[in-house]
Amino acid sequence: MNSEEFYYCPRCSHQLELRSWEGRLRKICPACQWIGYENPLPCAAALVLNASGEILLVRRGVEPARGEWALPSGFMEIDETPEQCCLRELEEETGLKGKVIRLVGVYAQSSARYKKVLIVGYEVEARGKPSPGSDSQAVAFFPPEKMPPIAFSSHRHLIEDFLISKNRRFQNKGQSRKEGQKAVSQAGEKQAGKTRWKDRREEGRKGERKNE
Ligand SMILES: [Zn+2]
Predict the structure, then answer these.
(1) How far is the CA of 137 from the centre of ligand 1 (A)?
(2) Cα 112 to ligand 1 centre (Å)
(3) Residue-range definition of the domain harbouring residue 67
(4) How much distance in Å is there from the Cα of 3 to the middle of ligand 1?
(5) Rounded CA gap, 109 and 117, in Å?
């Protein structure tokens, strides 16, 4: 929950006060002691490869980033595991039923709309021909070296990490992060300009994983 927009207690309607609590300023209800914690919103994303090693992307039909390409992804419901969320979103957006193979990584990202989101990214096995669901405009597989610009920095990190680990597994040799970035960015970054990698540096990869 993001308490930034609350002025009155959502539990008892008393006016909230800004108080220092556990080293942070938080909105607190002096009547019932409700505390307005601010936490990132959890999402899951699916990375699906076809038999040719191409990556499944969705052209988003809803904000944020409507009309842009991203991995199939969405917000976790209260009664789901991250894996269930990932497979549900995959099916809703592409029509494909999948199976989680492994966790690729966990990423925090700033969001104008939700302040901060936490993306849990899985490699998913799914067969069949994808078709766009109600909240996607199009779905398609792209070779890693010919991908369109990807809407979210977290999804780009996820794809990089996936490609790096995939190459390690299949070639049994190390690959630098730069090479992973190159694979993701070759096609897309030229079109999108160079600002996209900048916001990644600003967010700070270590900070994202350790602190948020
Ligand atoms: Zn209250």
Answers:
(1) 43
(2) 28
(3) 41-202
(4) 13
(5) 5
